[in-house]
User: Which sequence fits this backbone?
C-alpha cells in the first residue's frame, strides 16, 4: 500500500527542525504559523517522532489548532510519526511500549488515526524485537489506529533485509520505508536497494530523508542544537564538504540548494515507481519557502498550459533542468572524492559496547 498520490505530492516536511538535536530552543519557534505556510505552498505530508523532542508535541498542538483544522480537513493531510526510540541510547520495541507510543501520538495530534507509523531506527534492535514491533503495528492498522506501517533507519541494505524478513515471516509487507542520508550528492547508495524494497520486500513506497545529509552539505557545516554536535560524519568528510561548499559559493551558487536539487532530481530519476518522495527539512517560514522553490527547479508540471496552484502540481522529473546542473554536481562530487558513498556505522561501536555491558549486568 502506498499513501502518496498526486493530492499529496512528492514532498514531506520533516519535523526534526523543531527538535533539540537541531535547534537550541524549539519552543520559541512559531510552529503553527510555519505549518500553515507550508500548507499554503502545497505540502500535505508531515513526518516527526517522539524522539525529536519536543517536535511531536509542538506539531501535535499545531495540527490540533482551530486555525488549521478549520481550513484543512484531516483527510487532506498525511501525518507520519515513529515509535520505539526513546533517547540516543534507549529503545523499547515491546508490544506494550509500541501501543503506548502510538496512543500518545494520537492524543498529541488529537486524531483518531495516523497515516504512517514507523519503527524508529530499526537497525538498533534485534530482528526478533523488530518483527514483534511491526506485528504490533500491523495489529493497530487492523484496529484502525494506523493507515500504513513502516520501518525507518540509516542503512538501506539492512532495512531491505528486515523488510524482506517481515514479509516472509509475518506474511505481509510493510507499506513504507524511510531511510536517510543515502540519496544525496555525497551518497547515492539507496539506489542499490530499491529493487529489493519494491521486489522481494513488496514495499509500497520508499522515502528519502536528509537530502543535505543532516545539514552536512551546506555552507557552515552541521547544525548544533541543545544536545551538542550529534552528527556522525568524521573530520575528513566534514572538511571535504566544507571545501565543496566554498567551491560552490565561488560558482555563484548555494551548497544547500544545489545539494537539494541533486537529491530531488536524482531520486526522481532512479526511483523505480516514478515517485521519488523526499523529506525536506525546514523549521522556519524562510527555510521552507526556499526549499520548496528549490524542489520546483527539479520538477515540472504535466500540463504547462495551466497555471500551477502549488507544489503538488510539480510532479514530473525535469531532465533538462537536471542536465544544466550536472557540471556543478560533478564539481562537488570530484571534491568529495574518496568520501563519495561513504557511510558510517549504525549502530556505532560505542552503542554496541554499551548494549553488551547492559546485557551482562542483567545476567
Assistant:
Amino acid at each position: 500500500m502506498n499513501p502518496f498520490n498526486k493530492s499529496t505530492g512528492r514532498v514531506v516536511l520533516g519535523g526534526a527542525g523543531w527538535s533539540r538535536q537541531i535547534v537550541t530552543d524549539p519552543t520559541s519557534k512559531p510552529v503553527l504559523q510555519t505549518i500553515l505556510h507550508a500548507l499554503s505552498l502545497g505540502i500535505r505530508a508531515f513526518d516527526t517522532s517522539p524522539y525529536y523532542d519536543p517536535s511531536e508535541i509542538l506539531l501535535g498542538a499545531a495540527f490540533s489548532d482551530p486555525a488549521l483544522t478549520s481550513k484543512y480537513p484531516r483527510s487532506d493531510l498525511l501525518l507520519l510519526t515513529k515509535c520505539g526510540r526513546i533517547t540516543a541510547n534507549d529503545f523499547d520495541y515491546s508490544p506494550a511500549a509500541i501501543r503506548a507510543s502510538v496512543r500518545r501520538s494520537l492524543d498529541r495530534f488529537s486524531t483518531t488515526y495516523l497515516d504512517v507509523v514507523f519503527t524508529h531506527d530499526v537497525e538498533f534492535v534485534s530482528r526478533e524485537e523488530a518483527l514483534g514491533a511491526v506485528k504490533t503495528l500491523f495489529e493497530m492498522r487492523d484496529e484502525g489506529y494506523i493507515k500504513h506501517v513502516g520501518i525507518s533507519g540509516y542503512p538501506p541494505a539492512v532495512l531491505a533485509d528486515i523488510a524482506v524478513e517481515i514479509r516472509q515471516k509475518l506474511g505481509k509487507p510493510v507499506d513504507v520505508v524511510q531511510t536517510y542520508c543515502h540519496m544525496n550528492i555525497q551518497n547515492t547508495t539507496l539506489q542499490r536497494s530499491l529493487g529489493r524494497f519494491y521486489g522481494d520486500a513488496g514495499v509500497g513506497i520508499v522515502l528519502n530523508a536528509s537530502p543535505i545529509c543532516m545539514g552536512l552539505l551546506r555552507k557552515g557545516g552541521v547544525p548544533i542544537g541543545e544536545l551538542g554536535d550529534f552528527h556522525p560524519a568524521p573530520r575528513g568528510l566534514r572538511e571535504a564538504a566544507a571545501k565543496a561548499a566554498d567551491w560552490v559559493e565561488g560558482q555563484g551558487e548555494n551548497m544547500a540548494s544545489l545539494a537539494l536539487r541533486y537529491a530531488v532530481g536524482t531520486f526522481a530519476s532512479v526511483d523505480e515507481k516514478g515517485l521519488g518522495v523526499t523529506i525536506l527539512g525546514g523549521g522556519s517560514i524562510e527555510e521552507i519557502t526556499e526549499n520548496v522553490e528549490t524542489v520546483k527547479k527539479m520538477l515540472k508540471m504535466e500540463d504547462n498550459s495551466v497555471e500551477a496552484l502549488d507544489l503538488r502540481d510539480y510532479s514530473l522529473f525535469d531532465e533538462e533542468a537536471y542536465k544544466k546542473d550536472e557540471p556543478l554536481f560533478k564539481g562537488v562530487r570530484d571534491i568529495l572524492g574518496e568520501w563519495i558513498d561513504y557511510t558510517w556505522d549504525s549502530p556505532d561501536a560505542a552503542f554496541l559496547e554499551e548494549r553488551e555491558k547492559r546485557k551482562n549486568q542483567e545476567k
Remarks:
- The longest helix spans residues 319-336.
